[in-house]
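Weekly structure sync, notes
Attendees: PL (lead), two postdocs, one rotation student
Agenda item 3: pending single-chain targets
PL asked that the sequence for the first pending target be pasted directly into the notes so everyone works from the same version. It is reproduced below exactly as submitted, 149 residues in total.
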Amino acid sequence: MAKLFTRRRGRSGSTRPVSKKLPSWCKYREEEVEPIIVNLSKQGNSQSSIGSTLRDKYGIPLTKSITGEKIGKMLSKAKLAPDIPEDLRVLLDKAVALAKHLQRNRQDYVNKHALALVESKVHRLGNYYKSRGVLPADWKYKPVSASVD
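Predicted structure, written out during the meeting:
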């Protein structure tokens, strides 16, 4: 899949398992997986790092095939879900890092453009989450680019 604002390709990620059914070699049951996920979340891990840990350390290919729910649903059921979704939080951190860089390097025009693109993604993703009810309707992103110029 191509990137949003360039003609280049994006980074390749890991491929999901072919079948969504529980493999025969997976020895974990639903009662065992849920406490592991809650414990990993209490240690401060994000949803994506919980999924990677389950895959690499415990040998669980897909949580949904065992429990019937995704990791985010189980965390929200246990009242451990973050108030801002992970993908939006990562974009906000990237925007803050770019703004901090631009405070020191005011003539870095490439990164000024990159900051504008990241803020555009933040606005679009914020509108999506507001329409889905994940974020409150009065949530607003305060751009950091105003202090950069």
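Discussion points:
- The chain has six helices and no strands.
- The chain has a mean pLDDT of 88.
Action: rotation student to compare against the earlier draft before next sync.
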